[in-house]
Amino acid sequence: FGSGTTAFNKVDVKVHDHVLSFVEGHDATCDEDGYADAYECTICNQYFEDEDGLILIGDEDAYEAWKLDGGLIPATGHVLKMVDGQEPTCTEAGYMYAYKCEHCGEYYEDEHGLILIGDEDAYNAWKLDEGKIDKLGHDIIKVDGAIATTENDGFKDAYKCNNCDQYFEDEEATKLIGDEAAYNVWKLAEGKIPAL
Predict the structure, then answer these.
(1) Full-prediction pTM beyond 0.85?
(2) 3-state SS of the chain: helix, strand, coil percent to 5?
């Protein structure tokens, strides 16, 4: 080569039509990021964002980095809705309210989705265990009856629960009379003591 002449090595560049294979992405969940679908050329092993092979991602290392950046689908986060609890009664246990995610269907004890209960089956078990509120039991007070006289009928003593406002014939609350209206009827019938 003479002065002022530069030599170049001839490099063969093999151009090919990409044969693209679909690479399924990963859907984002409430807790985990996902990444978009991509396409890999089965000839040159390069990854692309589009099915036409026009938007190059790069080799496998570039693809792995892309999944955490350009192809990232951020976690959706939980969308929690309160699920009503059930107040306990004198005779039946209740359970605390909880929260259900509208996206994933999981139940949580807290409004921030930090204390996982689990799926529907786990939630139903939770209501009978950790979320259970014990039944109240009756808080019985004696309701004095009226003594029968020669002029007026009387009525027997009864018992009233301060929690449920139900009346009973016995202190153990095993013989239900009912609410106040039923109690007033009872005083004139089963609980009546006839005038002397």
Answers:
(1) no
(2) 15, 30, 60
Classify residue 173 as left (phi > 0), alpha (psi -120 to 50) or beta. Answer: left
Average pLDDT across each block of 10 residues of the chain; the chain has 196 residues. List them in order.
50 71 95 95 95 94 95 94 96 97 96 95 97 96 95 96 96 96 96 94
| DSSP annotation of 18 | -
d(CA 166, CA 183): 9
Residues 6+ apart with CB under 8 A from 31: 75, 78
Contact between residue 112 and residue 105 where contact means Cβ atoms under 8 Å apart: no
State phi, psi for 176 to the nearest 5 degrees. Answer: -70, 135
Structure tokens at 148: 């029968």
DSSP structural state of residue 191: T
